[in-house]
Amino acid sequence: MMWFTADLHFGHSSILSKMNRPFETIERMNQGLIAAINERVAPSDSLYVLGDFAYQTTAENARRLREQITCEHVHLIRGNHDDSWSTGAGAGIFETEQDYLEIAPGYARGHKLVLFHYPIMSWNGKRRDAIALHGHVHSKGPTNNERNRERGILRYDVGVDANGYAPVSLAEILKFFEGAQSHSRMG
Known about the structure:
five-stranded mixed sheet; Purple Acid Phosphatase, chain A, domain 2; Calcineurin-like_PHP; Calcineurin-like phosphoesterase domain-containing protein
């Protein structure tokens, strides 16, 4: 099963007040986010982190936090707060690390998935029902996602702030857009 999340900001203490996250300390946030991942994502699943895995912490600490996630297949789509984790103390933290990824339609009921940290106005396959998944904007609650669906825009914020501080599954995203009329088929 495929899962998606973004904007974890492990180690970033000012994210608590800046985004009004419901954790008393950065340590509790780190452990709460890891617990939410481990509760939903099986060890054999694939988890795609769409940017900002950690910020203002050492590569060694980021490695320790990653090692607490029981999912074996964690992939990073780099965000603006992600240095390259593929070198030095960060080497090997993620199964793959890249700036952008497209997942073929065969995995998502005919929808191509376009994974990028940033929300973009247009993406490859947008007019052919491709779904863009992103983070970066720290939406509070599902309102931006709902607004996109109402407008026929197949773009979904997978960030923790928009999704109850937990990852979302591909099945949940597909169900969310089920029946939504995409502008891609409209004149």
